[in-house]
Design brief:
The chain has six helices and 20 strands. The chain is an alpha+beta fold. The strands form seven sheets. The chain has a four-stranded antiparallel sheet, covered by helices on one side. The chain starts with a strand and ends in an 8-residue tail after the last helix.
């Protein structure tokens, strides 16, 4: 598949960069697009601002920062934008489905960036995207975009209180097999594939690239950062490769799923303050670690952990 820079397909410019606090919302008639990942990024309607004409429907907006950067949407009504939003105008006639495809392609590059870290301000224009739209996408554009839009709803609307007073300590080595990755270094592999490559990053689940080689580590394990961003833990939902230098792998001795994995990884990460660049979190120190968990009859209460995560916002996305 041929890839081209995004600015070969779209004319790209910063949006209005208006301050929402200075906008009037009484009798608003123009959509105001901010750095939200919901409702096409539209947070409210505002009154027309001075002599500024709104952008017209059919253009694409892309968030460059915020908690869910690279959220890209085809705007359906006239709009203004907040700061850190770029507006994309197709350089050729383009159908709605074709625009949705490029929203999807842009969002798939989200793993390359971090909010308040490596944002997309400078590099968005030269981001590589397919020059042609795969035929299998056409006709499914709306459903594919919906599948990749985060659902903020929890699975369970109930409330569960966290009362750590009745939790018990458990040895990490009794819960997990602890091992080091035996994979190749990143520079020994070929980028551009489908296999996640996990390093000691503190963002994007530790994934810093995708490689063409087959995965060697099982899904439903937890990776631990021995060095680099020391003390960060990530639940890995799919098979992957990992750096042998600064990542340790925790393979559960119990039945795990995404809900339990996220609960455990969060508790493990509470120990992060005990480690740093000089005091790395290697296999021996992981084996000595003890964590406090919900318990029942002297055993971890896995059902409680799963139920609690299901009450949190966005749990329906897991």
């Amino acid at each position: 598949m041929k890839l081209v820079p995004l600015d070969a397909i779209f004319r790209i410019e910063y949006g209005n960069q208006f301050d929402f606090n200075k906008m009037e919302t009484v009798d608003g008639e123009v959509n105001f697009v901010s750095r939200s990942s919901q409702d096409l990024g539209v947070v409210t309607k505002v009154s027309k601002y001075k002599d500024f004409e709104p952008y017209q429907p059919g253009l694409i907006t892309v968030t460059l920062g915020g908690s869910y950067l690279l959220s890209a949407f085809v705007q359906q009504e006239p709009f203004y934008t907040a700061q850190n939003i770029k507006v994309l105008t197709p350089q050729i006639q383009m159908s709605f489905e074709e625009k949705v495809f490029y929203c999807y392609a842009i969002a798939k590059n989200r793993f390359r960036y971090t909010s308040h870290g490596r944002e997309a301000n400078i590099t968005l224009n030269k981001m590589l995207v397919p020059a042609e739209i795969p035929k299998e996408f056409l006709g499914r554009a709306v459903s594919i975009l919906h599948e990749n839009t985060p659902n903020p709803a929890p699975i369970d609307d109930g409330k569960i209180e966290l009362d750590t007073a009745c939790w018990e300590y458990f040895n990490v080595k009794d819960l997990f097999h602890i091992s080091a990755s035996k994979d190749e270094l990143m520079n020994e592999l070929n980028e551009g594939g489908q296999t996640p490559y996990v390093t000691s990053s503190d963002t994007h689940n530790g994934v810093t690239s995708f490689v063409k080689e087959n995965p060697t580590n099982a899904a439903m394990t937890i990776t631990a950062n021995r060095g680099g961003s020391v003390g960060y833990f990530f639940y890995q939902p799919v098979p992957y490769k990992a750096t042998p230098v600064d990542v340790r792998i925790l393979t559960p001795k119990f039945q795990i799923n995404a809900y339990i994995g996220l609960f455990i990884k969060t508790v493990l990460q509470l120990e992060r303050g005990k480690y740093n660049y000089s005091r790395k979190m290697g296999s021996d120190r992981l084996a000595q670690m003890r964590i406090k968990l919900p318990s029942i009859n002297g055993h971890p209460d896995w059902q409680y952990m799963e139920s609690y995560i299901k009450t949190l916002p966005y749990s329906a996305c897991l």
